[in-house]
Design brief:
The chain crosses the membrane at residues 32-53, 65-84, 104-129, 136-153. 66% of the residues lie in helices and 0% in strands. It is an all-alpha fold. Mean pLDDT is 86; it is low at 1-7 and 213-217.
Length: 223
C-alpha cells in the first residue's frame, strides 16, 4: 500500500504529457505558459454579475454557473503556471462542468438538482479517468456545441457565437501544433460565457423562458 501510494503521489505531481505549444518558461521563470496563465482569469468574467445585480435577484442556477466560472479561472491559472498532470485533469474537468452548466442554463434548465447531478456525473468521470482526459474532453464538448451555438444565434448573440467558433479554431490550431493560440481560446470562450450569462438574465428579466423550443418568443438580449 505504501508503494502504491508513493507511485500515485508521483503520478499526481508529474508534468502533463499534453500541453499547449506555447514556449515554456519563456517570459517568467516561475510560470510555464505565461500567456495562457495571464488569460486564464478571463474565465471569471461572468462573475461581474454579482456586482451589477442584487444577489437575491439572481436564480440559484446562475449562482452555480458563476461559481463554476470562477473555479475554472482558478484551476486554469494554476495548471498553466505549473503544468502538473493533476492540475491538468482538474482544469479539464472543471472546464467541462462549467461548459455543461452554461449550456443547461441557455437551454432553460434552472433546476439545481439537474445542474448538481450533471456536475457530479462529470466530476466522477474525470476522477475515474484523470490519467487520460484529453480525448474524453473533446467528445463531451462536441455533444453540447451545436445546441448552444443555436441558442446564442437565435437570441441575437451573434458575436458570442462567432467568438466561440473562433475560439474552437484557436484551440485546434494549438492542439494540432500549427500556431500557439491557446491563450486566445481562453479569451474567446470567456467572452462567450460572459454573454451567455447575460443572455439568460436578459430573457429572465423580460419574462421570457429561454429554451431551445421557445426562442421565437424571446426578444434579443439588450443587456
Amino acid at each position: 500500500d505504501t508503494v502504491k501510494g508513493s507511485v500515485l503521489w508521483e503520478e499526481l505531481g508529474r508534468r502533463a504529457s499534453v500541453t499547449t505549444i506555447e514556449a515554456k518558461f519563456s517570459v517568467h521563470p516561475s510560470v510555464a505558459e505565461f500567456w495562457c496563465f495571464v488569460t486564464s482569469p478571463a474565465y471569471a468574467a461572468p462573475a461581474v454579475l454579482w456586482f451589477l445585480y442584487p444577489l437575491a435577484s439572481l436564480p440559484p442556477a446562475l449562482h452555480f454557473v458563476l461559481v463554476n466560472c470562477t473555479l475554472t479561472a482558478v484551476f486554469s491559472s494554476l495548471y498553466h503556471m505549473t503544468l502538473f498532470k493533476a492540475l491538468s485533469s482538474m482544469d479539464a474537468g472543471q472546464a467541462l462542468i462549467n461548459f455543461y452548466n452554461l449550456s443547461l442554463l441557455l437551454a432553460g434548465v434552472t433546476s439545481m438538482r439537474v445542474h448538481c447531478a450533471v456536475a457530479a456525473a462529470l466530476a466522477m468521470v474525470f476522477i475515474a479517468m484523470w490519467r487520460k482526459t484529453a480525448k474524453i474532453s473533446l467528445v463531451l464538448v462536441a455533444f453540447v456545441v451545436p445546441p448552444s451555438l443555436y441558442v446564442l444565434w437565435a437570441r441575437g448573440e451573434h458575436g458570442a457565437a462567432i467568438s466561440f467558433v473562433v475560439g474552437v479554431c484557436c484551440f485546434l490550431a494549438d492542439r494540432l501544433k500549427f500556431l500557439p493560440l491557446h491563450s486566445l481560446w481562453h479569451l474567446t470562450v470567456a467572452y462567450t460565457a460572459y454573454r451567455s450569462c447575460f443572455t439568460f438574465l436578459g430573457a429572465l428579466q423580460s419574462g421570457c423562458h429561454v429554451s431551445l423550443w421557445s426562442l421565437q418568443h424571446c426578444p434579443p438580449s439588450r443587456i
